[in-house]
Amino acid sequence: MANASIFIQDACYQHRYIRSRDTSLIVERPERLIAAKIGLAAAVIRMQEVVGKSAGDPNDLVAALDKLTLGSRSSDITAPINVVHSSATLDILDHPAVKFTHGFPDPNTAKDSNEYLRNLKKWSEDSIEKISKGDSEIPQGLAQGDLYLCPESLNAIQGALGTVCECIDTVVDSNPSSSKRAFVAIRPPGHHCGEDTPSGFCFVNNVIVGAAHAHLKHGIHRVVIFDIDLHHGNGTQSLAWAINEETQRQKLEVEARIEAGNSPPATIPGLQIYYSSIHDILSYPCEDGTPSMVQAASVSISGAHGQWIENVHLKDHAKEGDFWGLYEEHYKKIIHKAEEFVLSTATKNNEDVLVFISCGFDASEHEYASMSRHGRKVPTNFYAQFTRDARVFAEKHAKGRIVSVLEGGYSDRALISGTFAHFCALGLSEEHTWNETWWNKDNLDALQNATKTKKPRGHVSPPLSAPKTDPEPEPWLKQAVSIFQHLEPIPFKTPRKGKAILVEPSSRTLRQRKVGSSSPASAKSKPEKSQGKKTEPVVITESTRSDGQAEDSDSSTESFSTLSSMSDSDAGLPISAPSKKLPRVILKLGPPPNS
């Protein structure tokens, strides 16, 4: 049995910025996935070293991966991990968990409203036409500065959601050979998106859709969410509040029927969500001090009105020792409150709990200064220690089941070091531990240099003297590069149609919601708007990849080749420049990054 799984969805590369060839200010970029894979590759090798002979020689692991084809969906290798190159997707207009999250009933017809989802699909499909006319592909009234779409964005969004659902099917599977912990490397992120309010790079809420899928298909009635992104997950909190509100309403109706001497209806328990966040209250979406956003990001409520929300603010610390004092006294509160949640909501069947980590790495000590410009950063070791503590909680209350989903994290080093530390703690068994020197400066420098794929441009003069020979890289580094090459297959530009495999979803009914309901925790930031029943199969397509290498980019300052430098003809862009100056994308967080 693998201790943990990695789920990778390469369709997520297709979501890219197409308003301009200049992508120097675009921090939510396809290359984020490459950085995450570098960190994951390093984690796999270091874990293999620690586990030792019981998991086989690291060279055997590399050899095992050599035998895999690009069409493989899963590799159960001799390491304590399982790698899944997912090709899962779903139809956002016709999937129960997506409609549970982003659709709501029309009071006039009693049918689910998919207006937002239909709009999202149309915005993506019409993006090139809009841009060619000099307009923005993002409608007026939505945040132009931190949202962008292209025609293939829908593939990325649906692939991301499909992969989260596939991961949950694996983690919740009763088969003892299935790994109970997993990291899902997807983009775009999701925790800023509410029911019909995209913002902060997010168009759908990946984690809440995953929670809904676990509830509808697998009977998971209680979900714990630990959000460790630098930014408050306002969208996730707003959705959790609405779901809890509906579950509480149903509960009160049942109690009233019993009190009146009537038999309670035979209903399935509603979904209850505990949402918690450690974040910087000075950063997006609270940076401009909007009262509703600051209030929502500061809510702490334990059970009243059926709500379970805990927000903890990052604090300044002078040195790392001070940070760990804050961690024990302050930041671990979100885990203590989660224990209160599961104990207070316990049922006869106490096996209906699933833990999610909304795993953002933008609070990292290595994040761009322009992204974390208030200095509320955490050491890399935080991503290992918090993960270990969340695992202890999950072992006690959730049968060890944890699904970690990538949210933020924008510089290469923040993503590499963060995924490295996080997955080591997620994958190593209790009797093994990590070594914090694995992600020290020298090792991170070596790792980034070893995965650098820059190509010389133009004429290169021969050296006047014999070049210096680089020292032989350490064995772990060579093996990490080999693992990375398997995690990072050649990216594709346009997907090909694959054979469809149909996986039947649950036939459970979806929650009923009232249109226009609001709460302090579901407030939306300006200029956003204020915040089912048919079941169809999830569509999972076979892996679809091409043989074309991505070109490099002059403007890239990253340690690997960029995917966002496709030619206009590749991307389907108009040849002529737009007649209007289109908005640039940057998340209202200050000047462009310098590194």
Secondary structure topology:
Blueprint: E1 4-9, H1 31-51, H2 58-66, E2 75-76, E3 81-86, H3 96-102, E4 104-105, E5 112-113, H4 115-125, H5 127-132, H6 153-172, E6 181-185, H7 206-218, E7 222-227, H8 234-259, E8 272-279, H9 291-296, E9 300-302, E10 308-313, H10 320-331, H11 333-344, E11 353-359, H12 381-397, E12 402-406, H13 412-427, H14 441-450, H15 475-487, E13 500-503, E14 538-541, H16 568-571
Parallel strand pairs: 1-3, 1-6, 6-12, 7-8, 7-11, 8-10, 11-12
Antiparallel strand pairs: 2-3, 4-5, 9-10, 13-14
Helix pairs in contact: 1-13, 1-15, 2-15, 3-7, 6-7, 12-13
Domain Histone deacetylase: 113-423
Organism: Lentinula lateritia
Pfam families: Hist_deacetyl
SSE order: EHHEEHEEHHHEHEHEHEEHHEHEHHHEEH
Structural class by SSE content: alpha/beta
Mean pLDDT: 81
Dominant shape = globular
* Count of helical stretches: 16
Largest sheet, described in full?
10 strands, mixed
Protein name: Histone deacetylase complex protein
InterPro entries: HDAC_HD_type_1, HDACs, His_deacetylse_dom, His_deacetylse_dom_sf, Ureohydrolase_dom_sf
Region (Disordered): 452-474, 498-595
Biased composition (Low complexity): 556-570
